[in-house]
Amino acid sequence: MRLLQYNSDGDFSLTEFFDKAIPHYAILSHRWGTEEVTFEDLQKGIGTNKAGYEKLRFCGEQARDDGLKHFWVDTCCIDKSSSTELAEALNSMYRWYRDAAKCYVYLLDVSALKREAGNTSTEHTWGSAFRDSEWFIRGWTLQELLAPRAVQFFSQQGKRLGDKGSLKRHIHEITGIPVLALEGAPLSQFGVEERFSWAENRQTTRPEDKAYSLLGIFGIHLLPIYGEGKEHAFRRLRKKIQKSLTVDEQNPLEPQSQSCIQDMRITDPREDKKRIENTKGGLLRDSYQWILKHPDFQQWRDDKQSRLLWIKGDPGKGKTMLICGTLDELSSSTKLRDKEATTLLSYFFCQATDDRINNASAALRGLIYLLIDQQPLLISHVRKKYDDAGKALFEDTNAWVALSEVFTSILQDPRLKSIYLIIDALDECTVNLNQLLDLISRTASTSPRVKWIVSSRNEPNIEARLRVDDTQRLSLELNEEHVSRAVQMFIDFKVSKLRLIEDDSKLQETVRDQIYAKANGTFLWAALVLKELEPIESWDVLDVLQDMPPELEPLYDRMLRQVEQLQRKDPEFCRLVLSTVILAYRPLHLLEVGALSNLPRQISSNLDNIAKLVNKCGSFLTVRENRTYFIHQSAKDFLLERAFKRIFPSGKAIIVYTMFSRSLEVMSKTLQRDIYGLRAPGYPIEMVEPPIPDPLAAAQYSCLYWVDHFLDCDKGQTTNDLIDSGSIDRFLRTNFIFWLEGLSLMKSLPDGIVMIRKLENYIKFDESPNVHAFIHDARRFAISTRSIIEEAPLQAYCSALVFAPGKSIVRQTFEELIPSWIQTKPKVETHWSAMLQIIEGHTSYVLSVAFSPDGKQVVSGSGDSTVRLWDAATGKAQQTLEGHTSYVRSVAFSPDGKLLPMLRVSNHWIIEGDLNILWLHPDYRGTCSATWNRSLVLGHSSGRTSFFCFDKSVKVIK
């Protein structure tokens, strides 16, 4: 393919590249105008006066800002006078867009200028023009939307409007393309006719192009024959599609499998990778090339016996960017980038500051999600458990056990050839790290088709658990020369982009040398300093550099001192923001920062003002798609440990209480009946799309975490909140039913039940009888109505209230919200019965049940020959155990509640594990049984009791 490149004189030149020699490049998507620059124009050095030349300039400048030297524009990178080249280009177009590092969509018919001067509205004034843009109805732009990983949209002024991720709801509404497809799911997951429907209302200038523009959507190669007509072109296309489809592609994922994938997806690691790269200023190829030539990496890649490589190093040494670069290199030969490849690649980025992705279960969910994304047939391994447990499979207390079994089963699938698995920042996995390390070590040693790369800080526990030798350990400290050289290349590139000194080569050289000397081979230090230099005038650059201390911790101290020296009240406002972001359980949306930080209303209610304040917090924080992140885990560690008294001068307790009390306030102001305007009482949750702007945006975090922050408070702080008519009592009696609706819309109702249970366990009846009574009733109400409110959120005001007992406190409090069209209500029970909930799932008699020692789980055995594990609080199925050949008459837990017993009775046998060890004589077959450790007791209809005890040895006949 030919690529454009900026010349030193400001013009463009074309260079042709082949296969692996193709460098990273950006690509333009646009609507053709009447004055486009052609291949012939560039060859002759003309066309600079054409209107289309500005598109080239825009694309080139944007690519340069993103650290890319090359870019591609269809108007001038294809020689359309050559029919052979044109045919090749049409068949390669999807691949070219797919492989682009960035895709820029230039929307000539969308203006980002505000309609009114001084308009401070946070709504997009370009929203209606965006929805009406002709770009969305052109034929070729369909593949230009779906193929690239990173699609960014720009107005006619060149202002960035957002990307495919942040605008996916808009795009879904405009195009009808499923969100899953916009998120990068393999198009093979969608049926042939569904994919055809995406192009149904699109237009092309030449009739045949309506068919040719779909070649990449179906992975088809077809020789274009202009003049054959649209109908004939579609007949040829359909015939080619039919021949190419496998049996599985002819039967795409059914709705249940799609629901399974959606429930499993906690994050898309591909989106995390893009966010990380953008946050860190872009991925520079020269900064990671050295690792690809390193003997340890090459041995890992080439030696079948080498299945684990641990990249370790101190904070800020560039481990994550090494992982990102390694992923780029490996992906080209895997199904992530090449449909014909047989190798799968899956990866995950742990992040301690985000409780969604800081645990072992999340890591497995991410890895499994990407594996299924590449090979949909693997969904069968998940469906075995998901069909019984539903979403709880991924979230309940046994999630790790179930997921590790699914993951191991996938790795053993005989249809798979080879698999690369990569996890970054193991040290930031704060929950169940040891179990994850054991799983990595075990699968690396027992699965010959699997190769692992992991990274972390230098932590002895990780080294001990992984059990690596010297050939499996790549230490960045021991490769200081390579790392320092890579840091220098990074510095060279970034200094060349400092616009205020770009014309002063001597000053650039001095700046480079000084940063080299102080960086000490630390990427993060260099990146933070270079960011500090961006707004500095050229005559101040050297003075600022002179003030920069070497090492990360002194640099963080300097950054914090700068924040403390801001004018007027800004230091206090920044301290409120930093302390809130530190204590949050996950990264906060800017509106959530405003809602929780106790900032003045002029700041907290305006998205732009919150963003400005966050940007004043030194370089500790960064914003991506309106969500706030720490620039690095070490930055949070510094603020929480070294600068604790400066961030929390009165201690953490006051900030924790503020986050709790502000949560109640923002929920009280936000929550209301039918907040999304669904109107239809049976509107199903799977069809709900959040409005834009989302009225729940500022309150989502509060809805999910207000109880956690309440429980984190010092008990003395919350005395008045706990009393009858206190803040919690007032909130629940006014907003409880609205809160349930909001949780359902967020697909988090089970989390709400857990929160209610936590409150009930914490609040003492004798201290707050009315509050305790309401919360107890609220738990009964939520548990009994969970299934219908989850299915249709507005049934919270219909079925949930109508069928609640007449004396239910929740019903009596919110009865006026029952729709007036329900004129006669059925007669219901007066009080809640002793039955908490009905748990359904077995297909035959339930013959035995048992609680776990902590009361959090229930196990049941049935005549359908299965054992099922349930969450006692919510009633959700967690796991189904199959393999019994007859009724399961006895179930129990081990004393620690972690295991079902090794011993059981089934089909006249005493069974240990999966082995029959003792056949029972008819006179000794009991009507009931119980187990404890390695003992078994049988009760008989005669009144006799039989005891058995077995040792731990292997049961064999010697």
From TrEMBL:
Location of the NACHT domain: 307-457
Protein name: Vegetative incompatibility protein HET-E-1
Organism: Lachnellula suecica
Keyword Electron transport attached: no
Xref: InterPro entries: HET, NACHT_NTPase, NPHP3-like_N, P-loop_NTPase, WD40/YVTN_repeat-like_dom_sf, WD40_repeat_CS, WD40_repeat_dom_sf, WD40_rpt
PROSITE patterns reported for this sequence: NACHT, WD_REPEATS_1, WD_REPEATS_2, WD_REPEATS_REGION
Keywords: Repeat, WD repeat
Record PANTHER family: HET DOMAIN-CONTAINING PROTEIN (PTHR10622), NACHT DOMAIN-CONTAINING PROTEIN (PTHR10622:SF13)
Keyword set includes Cytoplasm: no
UniProt cross-references to SMART domains, sorted A to Z: WD40
WD repeat boundaries on the chain: 839-880
Gene3D superfamilies to which the protein is assigned, alphabetical: P-loop containing nucleotide triphosphate hydrolases (3.40.50.300), YVTN repeat-like/Quinoprotein amine dehydrogenase (2.130.10.10)
